[in-house]
């Protein structure tokens, strides 16, 4: 009996030391990683190298943009490193770092300092607006309804019209039930998301769930698994589950322009996968990477795309989504008080 107890104690001690040994190895590995991870000082060069390395190791579109626009991130490093000097002023450093980030052509990439915000808005600034506040006021009138982030009314041809300006404006199941019930006898619905720069992806998913009757594949995403430009997990499918509330089974048109970005860009991809939906207007602005933030030694914050997303055909939407029908606002229609894109959608839904 005594021998058996001693054996059991020895086994427990062995397991304990094995566990301690494993923990020690893990601690050594972590410490080794900390030592090997190069830390840069709060100097112009240190901040430059930190920013370049964050993008190099964690930005999710370097391979894609090298293929699409010929971006060579190492060449970018050498080009802008030559402009860094030890005695440069804060504003001078910010200007160089901002210009370097602009090479990525990504609206999700920003550098925030107490005195300024570096941004890239070329995804919409260099394109026609395809939206007029004057015309919107004419179509909306003064008696439109408001349900949380949604403004809506029924047009005189029995087409429902919903204006959603930002996915940052919350919506709930109750709001959507009320809006869709109000339009239950309409021939079709227009969802106008022009100039919607994004917001909460959950709002996009919630709205899209009202336009499918079964679980629908709407896209894919990946996650970074290492520091290499191509170190990603396998593509993971993204589905929209049909809502338990009121669902719309008749035709729907989604109106887009170049200022549709980020979560609104994702919503457009979701709706293109829905059987009764058509996208009308201009190509969206893109923004198919979920953003993440990190710090430079001087406290400035860099925001960048870290998780790539794709449409249902596994194509990146980083540079925007093509509509089913390209339509531009025309001067002739504007002078007659008509929104060309809305009128095209109305005619399409009336067929």
Structure description:
- With 351 residues, this protein is α/β, with parallel strands linked by helices.
- The protein has helices at residues 2-36, 44-58, 62-69, 73-81, 90-102, 122-125, 133-140, 173-182, 201-208, 263-272, 331-335, 340-350; strands at 110-113, 116-118, 145-147, 150-154, 159-164, 188-192, 216-221, 236-240, 252-256, 277-281, 289-295, 301-311, 325-326.
- Strands 3-4-5-6-9-10-13 form a seven-stranded mixed beta sheet, sandwiched between helices. Strands 1, 2, 7, 8, 11 and 12 form a six-stranded antiparallel beta sheet that branches.
- Helix 9 runs parallel beside helix 10.
- The longest helix has 35 residues, at 2-36.
Evaluate the radius of gyration: 26 Å
Could you tell me the strand content as a percent range?
15-25%
Topology pattern, helix = H, strand = E? HHHHHEEHHEEEHEHEEEHEEEEHH
Residue windows where pLDDT falls under 50 for at least 5 positions: 1-36
Mean pLDDT comes to: 91
**Mass-distribution shape:** elongated
Helix proportion range: 25-40%
Give the neighbour order of strands across the main sheet. Answer: 3-4-5-6-9-10-13
Q: Report the count of strand segments.
A: 13
Number of helices: 12
Largest sheet, if any?
A: 7 strands, mixed
């Amino acid at each position: 009996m005594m021998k058996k107890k001693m054996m059991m104690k020895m086994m427990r001690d062995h397991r304990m030391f094995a566990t301690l040994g494993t923990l020690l190895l893990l601690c050594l590995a972590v410490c080794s990683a900390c030592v090997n991870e190069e830390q840069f000082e709060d100097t112009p060069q240190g901040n430059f190298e930190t920013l370049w390395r964050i993008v190099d190791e964690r930005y999710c579109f370097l391979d894609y943009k090298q293929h699409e626009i010929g971006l060579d991130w190492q060449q970018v490093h050498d080009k802008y490193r030559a402009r860094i000097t030890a005695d440069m002023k804060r504003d001078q450093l910010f200007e160089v770092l901002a210009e370097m980030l602009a090479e990525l052509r990504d609206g999700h990439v920003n550098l925030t300092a107490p005195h300024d915000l570096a941004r890239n808005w070329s995804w919409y600034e260099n394109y026609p607006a395809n939206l007029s506040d004057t015309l919107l006021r004419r179509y909306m009138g003064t008696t439109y309804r408001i349900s949380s982030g949604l403004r809506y009314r029924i047009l005189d041809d029995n087409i429902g019209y919903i204006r959603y300006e930002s996915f940052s404006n919350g919506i709930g199941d109750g709001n959507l039930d009320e809006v869709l019930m109000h339009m239950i006898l309409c021939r079709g619905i227009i969802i106008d998301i022009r100039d919607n720069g994004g917001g909460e992806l959950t709002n996009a998913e919630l709205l899209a769930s009202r336009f499918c009757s079964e679980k629908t594949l709407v896209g894919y995403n990946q996650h970074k698994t290492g520091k290499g430009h191509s170190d990603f997990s396998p593509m993971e499918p993204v589905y929209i589950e049909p809502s338990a509330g009121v669902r719309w089974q008749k035709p729907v048109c989604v109106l887009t322009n170049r200022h549709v970005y980020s979560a609104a860009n994702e919503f457009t991809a979701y709706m293109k996968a829905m059987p009764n939906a058509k996208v009308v207007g201009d190509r969206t602005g893109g923004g198919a990477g979920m953003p993440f933030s990190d710090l430079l030694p001087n406290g400035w914050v860099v925001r960048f795309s870290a998780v790539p997303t794709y449409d249902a055909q596994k194509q990146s939407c980083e540079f925007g989504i093509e509509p089913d029908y390209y339509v531009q606002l025309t001067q002739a229609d504007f002078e007659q008080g008509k929104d060309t894109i809305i009128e095209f959608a109305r005619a399409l839904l009336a067929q």
